[in-house]
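Q: Sequence in, structure out?
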Amino acid sequence: MSEIKAKKPEKVREPKVVRDDLPNPVWFKPVMFGFMLLGLAWILLFYISGAQLPLGAAAGALNIGNGNILVGFGIFIVGFVMATRWK
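A: Exactly. Output:
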């Protein structure tokens, strides 16, 4: 009688999960849209208020004037950059 040796079962390797392939966390979309809306609101508030309200125009040291446009666009750009990573 000849003996047939049983093969050892081969280990099945699962493919490694690359971090870039994972879906975004639940908080990602609300934060992304929040930054976009906050930037838009900042710019609109600056224009609607006649440059008197945002960042303490009444307090001379805090008044950044037209710099509010840069702040608003900066906040909006953060949301836009997040949108490039949205899956």
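The chain has a mean pLDDT of 81.
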